[in-house]
Fold each of these.
Amino acid sequence: MSENKNAVLLIFTGGTISMSEDPSNGALRPIDFNRLQEYLPELKQTGIRIKSIPFLPLIDSSDVQPAVWQRMAELIQENYDEFDGFVVLHGTDTMAFSASALSFMLENLSKPVIFTGAQLPIGMMRSDAKENLLTAIEIATAQENGQAIVPEVCIFFEDTLFRGNRTTKKNAEHFSAFNSYNYPALAKAGVHIKYFRSYIHYPDPSNQLRVRKQIDQNIVIIKLFPGISQQTIHALLNIPELKAVVLESFGSGNAPRRTWFYNELKDATNRGILIVNKTQCSTGSVEMGRYETSLNLVNAGVLSGYDCTTEALVTKLMFLLGEYSSIDDIKQRLSISICGEMTVN
Ligand code: ASP
């Protein structure tokens, strides 16, 4: 065993998990990281070497920007050889976006990157922070024959490990805050942690980690609703510098059959804007051309987002637009699963 075995880097970005109640007035404030062991005395018993890097200042995840994803990716890159795994403590609100973004940015990842957070601050009595963090650390160091059991970007919450780019925040109240509607869980934590290996992606170990950090934010999400006006669609599709659209459609990928709608979409795709169809349903996939109401979209040059989450599609588009300049290269990569983010039949 090398001296680096069982070493985890904790990257604290912020969110509820990094907070504690001020006993004098009950207000939530960021914890002091030098006193982390006081909140989690169990950390010592794990025998795992733990180093923490806090973001200064800590941020609520609603304030996360692509620069934060880039910083996380850099920290993982800089510390990659020294640690067996990485745990990212992050607010739950945009955790699924960050985990999705990192899954694209960390190419050939062979070590676990486990995002976790909490619904109640770490310093509160009924907090879910302790269990979430300790189990995430255990998963980040779990190995078999010298290989990480889960070499993926994941989200661990309550008792379930999900593939990060398949996950969505589903609940603002319950401890079970996330779900992966279109892909099975990668592990369940009960008395033992049970890993479902056939669902875990194992990379070719001969490939080296490659961190790709270019992001292009010139995208927009358009969520359709009955009665959406031409003026709205026209304004959104003509945003200066716009490069891509996530079109949130109905059911299996359907949209109004109005001529003006078709013309607006066709005009945008002719101008080189990528439009990707994402169903508003949580479960299931876009099936372009199944109904007449999606045939128009095919004819207008709209691409299928298959069963991707909105979080994965948004970050995939930002990543592809940042990393590739040829629209054909981007379209080709939109039609395949890069790191398990969608099921293409
Ligand atoms: N607003 C918080 C955040 O996302 C909520 C949380 O941490 O769960 O940063």
Amino acid sequence: MPLVNMKPLLRHAMDNGYAVAAFNLVDYGTTKAMVKAAEELNAPVICQTSAKTIQYFSHREIVSWVRTVAEESPVPVVLHLDHCKDLAMIEECARSGWTSIMIDASEYPFEENLAMSLRVRDIADRYGVGMEAELGQIMGVEDDMVVDEADSVLTDPDDARRFCDALDLSAFACAVGTAHGFYKGEPVVDFDRIEAINRATGTPMALHGGTGLSDETFAKAIARGAAKVNISTNLKHVFVESVEDYRRKNPDDYEPLRVIDAQYQACKALFAGFIEKFGGRDTAPAFLASLRETA
Ligand code: 13P
């Protein structure tokens, strides 16, 4: 089916107590693996792209991969732009086929962040796509941008209300104690804050830094309003390690299709595990029915 807008999807997820898994695609194989995993579970999925992946390939290539696999699939697929600060790139994504865009101006003071995010609101409205924006600073490394623990700022629920009221977001990214990358110690996730932010904003929350969180943490965050969970680092590791593992077990095999198939299967299993964990199984039909009702 054609790519879907993120806004009604995350609203459906939040209202029905599940979260949609959002994976940072690497190439065509990982894109296909995430959609096929979603298909096996009859679940929606978000294929998202970092700015650096778009720079490496191109808007055209990425849109063609995601459309190719999504259009042949019966499950809803979103193509979303993850953390981006570049308004020209954001607009080019909306223009060329992304169905959701993210502005990350979280390093700026509140008013500047809001002003920049409002410019992206205009872009999203012009192209009819979903939108994510961030307030507070999430720790760790994302797309070569580093936020140290000392610089991370947890999101204040009252600020979150003002921000979300002005922006009408599909997903609200905020800092609640999670971090991008592998955790060094036990992460301290502020569940009360997640609940307070969700109560204040009524907006589906995007939980960043999904790699390394426990099943219990996912369940508690989703029960409190996390409707999108981002996974990137875990995929990077499986992407590389699955090839190393195949080579270790088959040192004389130089048939590339068997090598990339081993990688594909490992990535698909990873995706399916997260989709299941976030409660996505069999949620696609009800979401698609809700879309038909509002059409
Ligand atoms: P991880 O790299 O920790 O999985 O976080 C991904 C993320 O939040 C992307 O925005």
Amino acid sequence: MEKQQTSTLWGGRFSESTDAFVQRFTASVDFDRRLALHDIRGSLAHAAMLARAGLLSAQEHAAIVAGLGEIRREIEQGRFEWSVELEDVHMNIEARLTERIGIAGKKLHTGRSRNDQVATDVRLYLRDEIDAIAAELTRLQQGLVELAAREAATIMPGFTHLQTAQPVTFGHHMLAWNEMLERDYARLLDCRARMNVSPLGAAALAGTSYPIDREFTATELGFTAPTRNSLDSVADRDFAIEFCAFAALLMTHLSRFSEELVLWTSAQFGFVNLPDRFCTGSSIMPQKKNPDVPELVRGKSGRVTGHLMSLLMLMKSQPLAYNKDNQEDKEPLFDTIDTVRDSLHAFADMMPALTVNEATLREAARRGFATATDLADYLVRKGMPFRDAHEVVGKAVAAGVAARTDLADMPLETLRGFSATIGADVFEVLSLEGSVSARDHIGGTAPRRVAQAAAEARARLAARTAP
Ligand code: ARG
């Protein structure tokens, strides 16, 4: 039987061409073209290595370098014609190279497989994206820390159970957010360090019989070392999972910030204002100014956690080594990257533009008996056991609720009715300033400490070097 001509690069052993639907079903070019420039970078390193090993002549190598350069320009200028028949980004570029430079193009794939090629491309691509995300994360943190420094002495209610608990400073609250991001940044760098190794040379799964130089390509591509095991090299997607785990936790943090901003910008709280440019109106209710950016970020956190779950399920139970399943790693990973980068960008722009309603914050702290613990601590200092002091202050608060009076506004005689040990000096501890200033220890909310913590955070950010 005469063999039917197939257009693929692997059609040698096939006697009929792929079903048209199967071709579309198995193709990845519609989404993996995003890897094109990194694919070219990987190919250039591989070609340089082949030339050094004598597997390509100097002329062949030069033709490949020139051809890939041309293809890069075609892609950058949007002139490249992507074809689903050629399945994925790798074969599209390789076919185009051969079309341009002839036989030398066909030699590029010597000692390489798409399995180690795609593992290399995704790592190169993700590494660049990690660096861009790290920069946005730092920018957001810088904004938060400046806001914290500015509002180091601004009093607000601190909450537990979303009930007024004790006064804190706004700067302290911003620095609590910053701590979450500080851990996220460390996790991102940790992920980067572990993923920055070169799978190139693992070929399909078992390595290759050509005299390749894996150290050379690893160095060329800025990886710290070649991977240690060829089977693992083509099968491993842990780095994508680790990145998505970083991303899911970061987005969880952003969703928490978002939730607070949504509450705080409401008429009921009125703690802060977002500039109009981060909000939208309602088509029917003229008074509305909706905090769309925080709401969207809060919503987007869900899909990133979903992508993490997708990748875990994708890898679960896969036998070694490469399986076509792995092609499904890209869409969740890419969408995670886009979502995280955009969410950080929006937050980094928004936070420095936030304004704080000092009087409202203060009034909210005053209204909720936020200094009740301070009164109990005062009684303890006068010699009363803490449990008794708790009871005494509870009674005073109940009286205050009934009379609609804050503790600080009660006459001394009324307060002395709850305990005779109370003296005129009590008003120092019942004041909001007295309350926050008293919490003057590492990690405390005293304005002096918050200003210092902001300065330290600023210095840590300034000391960050590009990864
Ligand atoms: N498009 C494929 C992927 O993303 C490239 C590797 C294909 N390898 C293979 N043996 N079919 O995983």
Amino acid sequence: MCGIIGYCGQEQAPALLLRGLKDLEYRGYDSAGLSVFAPTGLQIVKTAGRVADVEEKWDRQKPKGDIFCGIGHTRWATHGAPTERNAHPHRAGQVCIVHNGIIENADSLRAEFAAKGYPLLSDTDSEILAVLLDAAYARTGEALSAIRYARSRVVGSYACAALFSDQRDVVYAFRKDSPLIAAKTQIGNFLASDFFAVSRYGDRYMIPEEDEVVVLTKEELLICKENGERVVKPVYTVQPDSRDTGKGIFEHYMLKEIFDAPDAVRKTCEAYMRDGLPDFQAFDTQNLRFQASRIGIVACGTALNAGKLGRYFFETFAGLPVFCEIASEFRYYTPPLLPGDLLIFITQSGETADTLAAMREAKKQGVPTLAVVNTPNSAAAREADCVLYTHAGTETAVASTKAYIAQTALLYMLANEIAARKGRLTQAAVRENMRQLDSRLPVGMANILADCGTIQALSDVYCADNASCFFIGRGADYDLAEESALKLKEVSYIHCEAYAAGELKHGTIALIAPHVPVVAIASGERTYEKTVSNLREVRARGARVLLVTDRNPSAELATIADDVYTIPLRGDLFALCAAVFFQLFAYYGALRRGCDVDKPRNLAKSVTVE
Ligand code: AGP
């Protein structure tokens, strides 16, 4: 998603804006730019490509003299190709803006203002914000009333920062649905899409509401209503583990975050375990609804895949009926919700537009909402009736890895807690499950991480030149197959599909031909043999089969798979442990194919538009 940053203070703004844009690069983008109050007036430098390209262009074009104020943008194209013409900032008359979000009625507004003779210089929806602000500002000369007018005309989502050419060294910003923070630091006043863009300069920030305006000057940061009335805001402090500590010894953030998996499990256990048992007492009064009669899990992408594994835990341990819904479907096709429901919204960023909209729909219907979130003070954390934080630490790579691990670990604990309260599991059984989670699982993950060379060799064989790859499993293994397929797909661009192993023969097996790679996940007792027979079916048709299993290597296994990888951790946590294998498998597949591992094409870390 787009990233925005604004600065006003005593330091040279261009360098700070460009640094901040680099810290926002992880969000995924295809063009960038900045606008500053140069000695000669508003100056814009922007280009398709990377922030480094903007920096180079700025170095060529920068004016002499001090520059204390400006705004910057990284664009993830939604309306209009990723070109210089469509890059932000956009200018209309006296106003220059950057925007993160989608203006849904942009076409009708563009037609209206084009008919009034306004020149529209780009193909974007965002440009209309500059036009609306300028049209109103030309009438009133007041920035706040111009903002009020623009808000009254647009439909959609926005975090918008604006400069008004005759208000030197002042930045205005306002939001709806899209994230925006404001931070007063030792070196001046900032605003940004998320805290990581300014975390170098301090650890405290504020979050403007949707009827407020942020105003930055060299001397102060104020947040006010559209009528100018100042607002006192709570100040959030970033926790140390939420700060981005860089890649360290690792070549990519994704690899570092995969290696963080054991720690993510331990930190999540520390947060919700006391004396060897789950401890959610602190949430009893917060409407966590331990007595729910049904659970709905709503999320997107990897977070939804974590929810599907969580469904297995809730159904297996607590005997609870669980439904899982894609958030972008739920928000428009909301299934009938029942009085005893508890809806769980899982989101690493806490800012995913579809998940937030789905949560708001659930709240509108009066259903209790629980958010499982990794990013402190994010919108989901603020808006849910109750929030359980995962403690995976900052996740920077676009592909979610350690957050998935922490999400599933937390859901495992919650399922055990609810099972205990319903009398379906004895305290001894829960204690044993927690021991497995807190000690055996991190060790099992560490063993896989230590074997990354073997996994890279397997990935080279299965990912090198293949255009497609199938992942199959049953039960929790199928839930893991879905996440494993997404992980490999999104970083290596191989077309991957996950299938319930028993479903292949109902059509998809037509795609199995000699050398087509099939990765099978088979563990436990209930359906292991069934999956093995499905493997025989695909092998008989020439597929190249990799089996990931909890069984020890044997002569028999060698007859059903070309390659076998054993993860000797039996039971319900096998899928959670094996997830680390598949994250490494995907990482090496992307590396082998020369893909941009941390910032895959077309993707963004937090999808704040629908
Ligand atoms: C994860 O690898 C993907 N990048 C993506 O599917 C992600 O999980 C999804 O967009 C949800 O993000 P969230 O957890 O921040 O809501």
